[in-house]
Amino acid sequence: MIFTPSPMLLKLLYTRGSLRNTPNGIAFSIKNRLDTVRFTRLDYVQIGEQRVVPENIALDLGDGDIRPAHDVLSRTPGGLEFPVGHSITFHLTANALPEGIHPIRVQFAADPFGELLVEVEDAIVTQPDNRTRIPRQSQDDYSEAAIQARQRFAEEFSGQEFKHLKHYSFDAHTLQGNCEHFTGVAQIPIGLAGPLRVNGEFAQGDFLIPMATTEGTLVASYNRGIQVLNLCGGVKCTVIGDAMQRAPVFVFDDARGARDFGRWVADTIDQIRPEAESTSSVAKLQYIDTYLANKFAYLRFNFSTGDAAGQNMVGRATFAACSWILEHYKGAPIRHFYLESNFATDKKASQINVMRTRGKRVVAEAVVKREVLQQRMRVTPEQLAYHGQVSNVGAFLSGANNNGAHSANGITALFIATGQDVANVSESSAGVLYSEVTKEGDLYLSITIPSLIVATHGGGTGLATQNECLRMLGCVGRGTVNKFAEIVAGVVLAGELSLGSAISSSDWVSSHEQYGRNR
């Protein structure tokens, strides 16, 4: 199934700022931000008063492939394939444009969309030609020559010589889609903790934990907590929620229009769902939350995304759903639409993610035996439970998103080691820590991570050392993301146990002095 793009979304095809004069005329770019299609016909391009027919247009398809538009479209059976994410630059034989804003119309056809018309404005602006530019090669920017050119540029620009940054052990072409202007690597030490015994529904057994960090005592602290958990039978981990969001906003003339629209969305979700899911074999739309304020309707689309973290996946799916909505809603006029309203709180800590889940919602819990806690950590269950109550007040007063000690430490170290999007630590660091003394006198300790954003497929998970660390955990291949989420949660609980005990027993400062001094 393919969605129908609305005129509002068709404007997004045009790459703003791409309009420019060339030695032979005018050029601009269009990027496919909708869905993979076949470009079947080009009728005309009009810029201001100049209408240019296909015979006077050449298409730059990338990699130096520039062809007359009439020839490439008429001689390609079924039309020219135009994948998502690809750009086509239009070269027009026309009179040069003066500086200023110019209206642009591009009329064409694409299969299966049919007739399409893009109407936008763009400006001709004189660019200074003395700007310092980082070297790049349009043909192959991951070639050895391109990389060495950037390395020389960095050394000349900074007046420094770089010895270690230049050395790496993988084919730079594997970084395409992960890192632009690749110049070298940052070598981050990886320490091992564990093995950690995880009693999960997906992760079962002992796991060696790779932790990438430059913080002294971090690996040692997590390792200490892991050993205590292992002596008590391990850590029980459970994934209790799974959702990834994109949150568009629709703007109306008044609050009543927004309210009626929200009701229509709720009534129409069974028609919206297949439009969203048409863009992916993995993304599944679970539900849509509607939040109303002023004359705005905020829709929070919630998807499951398989083994991928899924931010890009759900963006594309929500884009398709919203295009269908814009085309089919017949109520009060929609004045503006934005694919992201800041309500998904991507790369930001937020209360809504704590309450409603973003990524995986995971609980790690354990019963720590009194004798083990006293022998290994030099604290009693009562001391830790009381310390937790006092800490809760501090977290409440400060407005923190976590009443525990340092879950971001373990999550960040694991994220760097395994190729996760490290900026997602902002959401993933949220935590709800709970402890109590059992009737047997032991310590029950658990943490809920409400927005743990992890992946075992896509992003940086397939890169050289990152994939090796995932293989160390047995988290490569289909259906392993929940296993990885359970392991991360177990590591986090071990860190909370270790640091909480160190603070309660006053070992915290002395441990840093012994293991973490690097000054």
Automatic annotation (TrEMBL):
Pfam family, one: HMG-CoA_red
EC supergroup of this enzyme: oxidoreductase
Keyword Oxidoreductase attributed: yes
Cited InterPro entries: HMG-CoA (IPR057868), HMG_CoA_Rdtase (IPR002202), HMG_CoA_Rdtase_cat_sf (IPR023074), HMG_CoA_Rdtase_eu_arc (IPR004554), HMG_CoA_Rdtase_NAD(P)-bd_sf (IPR009023), HMG_CoA_Rdtase_sub-bd_dom_sf (IPR009029)
Keywords, comma-separated and alphabetical: NADP, Oxidoreductase
Gene3D superfamilies: 3-hydroxy-3-methylglutaryl-coenzyme A Reductase, Chain A, domain 2, Hydroxymethylglutaryl-CoA reductase, class I/II, NAD/NADP-binding domain
Domain Hydroxymethylglutaryl-CoA reductase-like, residue spans: 9-124
Enzyme Commission code(s) on record: 1.1.1.34
Entry's family note: Belongs to the HMG-CoA reductase family.
Protein name: hydroxymethylglutaryl-CoA reductase (NADPH)
Source organism of the structure: Hymenobacter volaticus
Native organism taxonomy: Bacteria, Pseudomonadati, Bacteroidota, Cytophagia, Cytophagales
